[in-house]
Amino acid sequence: MKTIRDFNLNNKKVLIRVDFNVPMKNQVITDDNRIRESLKTIKYAIAHSAKVILLSHLGRIKTIEDKEKNSLLPVSERLSELLGKKVIFVPETRGSRLEEAIAKMKNGDVLLMENTRYEDLNGKLESSNNQELGKYWASLGDLFINDAFGTSHRSHASNVGIASNLPSGIGFLIEKELNNMLPVINHPERPFTVILGGSKVSDKIGVINHLLDKCDHLLIGGGMAYTFLKAQKINIGKSLCEDDYLEYAKEVLKKTNKIVLPIDHVVSKSIDDETCFIKEVIEDDDIALDIGPKTIKLFQDYLEKSKTIIWNGPVGMFEKEMYQEGTKALCNCFQKDQTVIVGGGDTASAVIGFHQEKNVTHISTGGGASLELLEGKELPGIKVIGE
Asked: How far, in Å, are 6, 29, 155, 166, 277 from residue 363 at the CA level?
């Protein structure tokens, strides 16, 4: 697969799909990590005298009000600060204003066009990979580099659509994601332990099916654990459970002894209740919201003996301080001589939020994309470049 290194960028208009879908509050960026992760590719293109044209989405656009709160203008301002040079911002996704701004670009200039999902307001043209939109965006450049790992599991006009119409390659961020994740998934050093959390079994069926034969141990926490516990006829009270997946959980538990489930729990009578208890036996009016200290010790025993660890999904409702001890404890037990891969989304937020990146080999920037890699799927935004 071609990378940005394989092209002569001099005096070329280089379209780069980045993932600037950053969290914002009142038009202020609260975490610029995704912008920072794109800097290596952008700076490489600048250093090689390209005219850099950036495309990204931000949020979901269903109404006019969504457009107003999801403009990429604040992102262009932050990117200007990080690059130490003015980024040209065009508040349009197509038309003469955008075309004229691109025509005036000099080598080394950087231009960011407006949120690609503005095109979703009238028929989801971006998200449905409208062919005409993909061709139009492709017509603005000489070549295309996809560096947005976080959207590579989606077939959109701004990745698959453009790549279908221009010479294409991947940037350094996608290269890093693939180089860190694929060898670990396909050829792990053993013992190999997978931690799965989050709320739903249904979200992780593909991962369970793909990794169960590959791993030595599968530790399950979070809300999804209670579907498995109920499948064993263990009382889970009012804890989260997907009854439609009880039969699936029974079948999985029947065919393997690799799965390790919580043996004690942090429970409350209500999610909003400020009082919680540690219990081994859940009562009928309890809701389990975190793993307990005995489960933490049990999980740590497996993790400490592991050479390779993949973690996707927090093991408790870590957004609330009283239910974050389990997730925090797992963050703290990784060692430098282990290969530790953390999926994106909430798991990445937890590790970064608890300042435990130091012993993690790789933190993915894409929640959905990393999940689909763990399921063994090809990502359309990357597959199109290899074709």
From this structure: 26, 20, 23, 30, 32
> Is residue 207 within 8 Å of 196, Cβ to Cβ?
yes
The Cα 70–Cα 94 span in angstroms is 17
Q: Which amino acid is at 149?
A: F
Euclidean distance between CA atoms 115 and 59, whole angstroms: 9
Return the exposure string of 19-36: e unless at least 16 CB atoms fall within 10 Å of the residue's CB, then b.
bbbbebeeeebeebebbe
Superfamily for 188-374?
Phosphoglycerate kinase, N-terminal domain (3.40.50.1260)
User: In the chain, which residues fall in CATH 3.40.50.1260?
Assistant: 4-174, 188-374
Instruction: Check: CB of residue 181 under 8 Å from CB of residue 370.
Output: yes
> How many other C-beta atoms are found inside a 10 Å radius of the C-beta of residue 252?
21
Architecture of domain 4-174: 3-Layer(aba) Sandwich (3.40)
Q: Identify the bridge partners of residue 54 per DSSP, sorted by sequence position.
A: 16, 112
What type of residue sits at position 248?
A: Y
pLDDT in tens, 45-72: 999 999 999 999 999 999 999 998 999 9
> Taking Cα atoms as reference points, which of 181, 189, 203 lies closest to residue 382?
181
Alpha-carbon separation of residue 95 from 129, 183, 186 (angstroms): 19, 43, 45
Q: φ and ψ at 310, to 5 degrees?
A: -120, 130
Instruction: Report the sign of the C-alpha dihedral through residues 304, 305, 307, 310, in that order.
Output: negative
Residues contacting residue 101 through CB under 8 Å, at least 6 positions apart: 88, 90, 111
pTM: 0.92
- pLDDT tens, 87-100? 999 999 999 999 99
Which residues does the annotation mark as catalytic? 34, 200, 345, 368
